[in-house]
């Protein structure tokens, strides 16, 4: 960058030098003993002006070329940086900061935000009320539950050897299984207390039972003695936990009032919860692409271990097609408001991006690592569009009914 910067300023210096030479030439020609006529002076001035103009054009073109070269060099550097930053676990020298970022898994916490927001939007559609206090209490509690899921997953995968070569595993980074284990179950305890306190405070027993079922799905997914994810049952459990259980529970809690403690389960919340479960499950499915060999070695028979990555890429294509097919089916049956169909349709390019990325890179272990983050993007945008559509349907009942 410093070289490019200096090159651009060399153009400015060259321009000054050319201008100085023109001035000197004009002074020499215009005053040879003060005998030159006024007409000659004007002619020389016009010639010098024209020459200066031509020089300026040449210099500007030179500077433009140098600018293009600098931009190309800069773009190449950015591309190389992006490739290195997005390189999967196969990379040998991954920076510590990158490993910490992957271990934190901040984008994955959208799986806590989306069910809550969609459930709250469905409750607003039904009742016209929204409690910010309850929403943020549930959000903090949900984040703690997701923290438990992430940490305990690293702990138990460390025990089985599935994360032996996983550099961003929390256990490998911290260097202590006990610390990760204690942090995981402390998060679970605090999160469950927060969910139970909010639910019981509203007198909503069914909601806390739904949330308990969601947490139970997470436990049997990865914790001993069950470890159902090793039998390829992780995706159905994920669908149930984040879709029907969590989304409908949040809907019930956020929509409850003193007059109506328990909201009826409408077609809107049931169909919305299915779509949320669908996009969440897609994240889990795509997170296995880059670790098929490691999973197979420790006897973890995820769907991708059974199918292979090539057929798995076909499953992703079918899943995205089914997601939008369900969306339009719910719209045609009037189960979901028209606003939801219109807004969620805007995320079609993101769905196409997920499919294209997986089809192009399913053989490349380094690049396919990013597939789950493309799915997170689809999950978050689709969820935001779905929630916005539910709110808009209530706000503009005369237009979206």
TrEMBL record:
Chief site of localization = membrane
Q: TM spans, by residue?
A: 106-125, 131-149, 170-197, 203-221, 233-253, 265-286, 314-330, 336-358, 378-396
* Any one GO molecular-function label of the UniProt entry: prenyltransferase activity
The metabolic or biological pathway listed in the UniProt record of this protein is: Quinol/quinone metabolism; menaquinone biosynthesis
Q: Which UniProt keywords apply?
A: Membrane, Menaquinone biosynthesis, Transferase, Transmembrane, Transmembrane helix
Annotated InterPro entries: DHNA_phytyltransferase_MenA (IPR011937), UbiA_prenyltransferase (IPR000537), UbiA_sf (IPR044878), UBIAD1 (IPR026046)
Q: What is this protein called?
A: 1,4-dihydroxy-2-naphthoate polyprenyltransferase, chloroplastic isoform X1
Source organism of the structure:
Populus euphratica (Euphrates poplar)
